[in-house]
């Protein structure tokens, strides 16, 4: 169960409260698929979270924030002991942001604004609204940095990606996966590009980074994480992780400990 710090309902629809505030959630805590009449920002001040929709899965480590537009069905899963912050975005501000789920890098200013919005109750009328406008301005100008795994539609591609979801460390080549699911290497390569807009190598690297973030948040060492996620050695894992996340896995894990 959540260890609530300050979590309160925000009017969203007569039968649909949208929570705003903060809580500590245990590793593996999950919120099943739901939607809101307003938009929602979810920030893991410590830990990490995955947001899943029909379009795929987005992962946000502790230096990123997720955005879900109004009426977009989504679910959340949290990794490591997570200090989650929930911020409702009224409809009149949602138009300033992208119309699809996304993930943005959290600047120092944005982090402090999100913490201020969720740490304490509003003391002066309109204070939260003014601060939320600053948050939206920051996000409207920010580039998207989505650790996004799109959801395939083709049955053969779905079968191939399912095998890798089950075992991210699986060393199979695209040709080997094709033989397993009944498709040629050329066909699968084309499907990765046309349906998922990325190469097989990029998709599998992103999948492995998703799992690496979960393992690191749960306290697994860098070396153990590299092996569990399929890298041949810790150095190649560190290089891939740093390129995608913007910091080494060791630095990322140290930041998690400090934030707790």
What number of domains?
Answer: 2
Shape: globular
The CATH topology label of the largest domain is: Jelly Rolls
Helix content: 40-55%
Q: Main beta sheet, described?
A: 9 strands, antiparallel
Mean pLDDT: 88
Rg of Cα set: 19 Å
At the first level of CATH, what is the class of the largest domain? Mainly Beta
Distance between the termini: 18 Å
Tally of extended strands? 9
Strand content: 25-35%
Class computed from helices, strands and strand pairing: alpha+beta
Low-confidence stretches: 11-17
Can you describe what's shown?
Residues 11-17 have low confidence and may be disordered. 42% of the residues lie in helices and 29% in strands. The chain is globular and about 65 Å long. It is an alpha+beta fold. It contains ten helices and nine strands. It folds into two domains: 3-147, Sandwich (Jelly Rolls), CATH 2.60.120; 152-259, Arc Repressor Mutant, subunit A. It has helices at residues 91-94, 108-119, 127-140, 155-166, 174-181, 185-196, 200-217, 222-228, 234-245, 249-259; strands spanning 3-13, 16-25, 30-34, 39-53, 56-60, 64-68, 74-89, 102-105, 147-150. Strands 1, 2, 3, 4, 5, 6, 7, 8 and 9 form a nine-stranded antiparallel sheet that branches. β1 (3-13) and β2 form a beta hairpin. The relative contact order is 0.13.
């Amino acid at each position: 169960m959540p260890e609530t710090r300050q979590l309160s309902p925000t009017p969203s629809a007569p039968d649909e409260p949208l929570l705003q505030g903060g809580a500590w959630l245990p590793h593996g805590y999950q919120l099943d698929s739901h939607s809101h009449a307003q938009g929602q920002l979810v920030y893991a001040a410590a830990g990490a979270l995955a947001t899943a929709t029909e379009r795929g899965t987005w992962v946000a480590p502790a230096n990123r924030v997720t955005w879900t537009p109004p009426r977009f069905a989504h679910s959340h899963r949290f990794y490591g002991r997570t200090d989650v912050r929930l911020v409702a975005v009224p409809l009149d501000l949602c138009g300033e942001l992208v119309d699809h789920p996304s993930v943005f890098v959290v600047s120092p200013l944005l982090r402090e604004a999100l913490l201020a919005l969720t740490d304490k109750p509003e003391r002066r009328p309109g204070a939260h609204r003014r601060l939320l406008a600053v948050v939206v301005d920051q996000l409207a100008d920010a580039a998207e940095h989505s650790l996004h795994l799109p959801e395939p539609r083709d049955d053969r591609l779905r079968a191939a990606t399912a095998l890798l979801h089950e075992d991210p460390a699986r060393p199979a080549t695209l040709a080997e996966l094709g033989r397993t699911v009944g498709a040629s290497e050329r066909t699968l390569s084309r499907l990765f590009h046309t349906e998922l807009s990325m190469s097989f190598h990029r998709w599998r690297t992103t999948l492995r980074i998703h799992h690496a973030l979960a393992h690191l948040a749960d306290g697994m060492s860098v070396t153990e994480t590299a092996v569990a996620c399929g890298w041949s050695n810790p150095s190649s894992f560190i290089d891939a992780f740093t390129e995608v996340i913007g910091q080494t896995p060791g630095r990322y894990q140290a930041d998690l400990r400090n934030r707790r």
